[in-house]
Amino acid sequence: MSVVRLAERRLLERAPDPEDRRRNIVTITAAGRTRLTHLDRLIAAAQDEFLAPLPAADRRNLIDLLTRLADHHGDKHN
After folding, report:
1. Are 12 and 29 in contact (CB under 8 A)?
2. CB 17 within 8 A of CB 23
3. Which residues contact 25 (CB under 8 A, 6 or more apart)?
4. 14 neighbors 31 (Cβ within 8 angstroms)
5. Alpha helices, DSSP H only, in 21-55?
6. pLDDT tens, position by position, 28-58
7. The pTM is what?
8. What does the pLDDT read at residue 75?
9. 12 pLDDT above the threshold of 60
10. CA atoms within 13 A of residue 68's CA, in its CB half-sphere
11. DSSP strands (E only) in the chain
12. For the purposes of burial, counting CB atoms within 10 Å of the CB of 77, is it exposed (0-12), middle (13-18) or buried (19 or more)?
């Protein structure tokens, strides 16, 4: 979702940067924090359900391996 749409939904605020009027300062609102917390809970529940067959040690190992892959490939796009 775009910054404009998030601002329209009052999930964040945009204000001109006083030091550089070409830039905006973007700040999450209380409503945005509430929405983010809700989404974090939904994601955690989905991950718990998906990873349920794995013991805790295997979950941690899988997450570590996937994070390493994402970090490696993410560096190529920066």
Report:
1. yes
2. yes
3. 14, 15, 16, 17
4. no
5. 30-51
6. 999 999 999 999 999 999 999 999 999 999 9
7. 0.69
8. 74
9. yes
10. 6
11. 12-17, 20-28
12. exposed
